[in-house]
Amino acid sequence: MPPEPSGAEAHYRALEALYAAAPINQLFDSRLEISGPGMARIHFTIDERYFHAAGAAHGTSYFKMLDDAAFYAANSLVTDRFLLTTQFNLLFTAPLREGPVIAEGRWISGQRRVFVADARLIAGDGEEAARGTGTFMRSRIALAGLPGYRAG
Question: What is the DSSP string of 60-118?
């Protein structure tokens, strides 16, 4: 049996569990993966449940996945507090159709109170469909007190 993760690895796994436990994520076929400090990836699938009237993914799916990927990239650097999105800008570059999509998030700057991170959506064909940048602020909410956050 592999040893229990510790340190940063335990924090990453606990954030992944927190993501999976969030009620909103029961609406999406998605999985968070944090591979290192300041990096997060969300694997998800778009199907017609997420389409607008013209047959492509509605912007809510773009925003949710870009915000989540950037957020978790930033929160991977903070082990005690939950971050809050204070601002997010996004740019749509292509429609998302049915199929797998990856949201790649990365931390850009900030390590004290405010963090800046960006994310991009990569469609199954390898093309970028959107990108966004957000600012995230430390809250008073302790990670350890949140249902789903299970640090080793």
Answer: HHHHHHHHHHHHHHHHTT-SSEEEEEEEEEEEE-S---SEEEEEEEEEEE-SSSEEEEE
Predicted structure pTM score: 0.94
Query: Residue 92 is encoded by which pair of tokens?
Result: 């749509």
Asked if residue 150 is part of any domain, the answer here is no
What is the pairing mode between strands 39-46 and 114-123?
unpaired
Domain containing 93: what range? Answer: 7-145
Would you tell me how many other CB atoms lie within 10 Å of the CB of residue 26?
9
CATH of the domain at 38: 3.10.129.10
- Number of structural domains the chain divides into: 1
8-45 pLDDT, tens digit per residue, is 999 999 999 999 999 999 999 999 999 999 999 999 99
67: amino acid identity, one letter: D
Neighbours of 112 (CB within 10 A): 7
Provide the CB-side half-sphere exposure for 114 (13 A, CA). Answer: 5
SS3 48: helix
